[in-house]
Amino acid sequence: xxxxxxxxxxxxxxxxxxxxxxxxxxxxxxxxxxxxxxxxxxxxxxxxxxxxxxxxxxxxxxxxxxxxxxxxxxxxxxxxxxxxxxxxxxxxxxxxxxxxxxxxxxxxxxx
Length: 111
Prior knowledge:
The chain is an alpha+beta fold. 22% of the residues lie in helices and 19% in strands. The chain has a single domain (20-104), classed as Double Stranded RNA Binding Domain. The strands form two sheets. It has a two-stranded parallel sheet. It has a two-stranded antiparallel ribbon with strand order 3-4. Strand 3 and strand 4 (93-96) form a beta hairpin.
């Protein structure tokens, strides 16, 4: 680390509100992580598909989670990078993970 001449800040989205950086990395852009299980995923009727469908039952929860996502994305002045895993290792084994429904929003590209 002594050879790095770059400052790295690790923060929650809520703590980053009102701050800006040139680059922002948003990790764990997977179902049940962002948006989280309690905020939106438990209410969603899409099951494991994570297809972007907003029903009247989840509209309020969706808009609240989207607001948090908006804060996260708009902290970057130059570029936002997303990371996601397609598998999850638990004590019960390895499971496939889906990307967050937010990764399907217009303007977001992932490889």
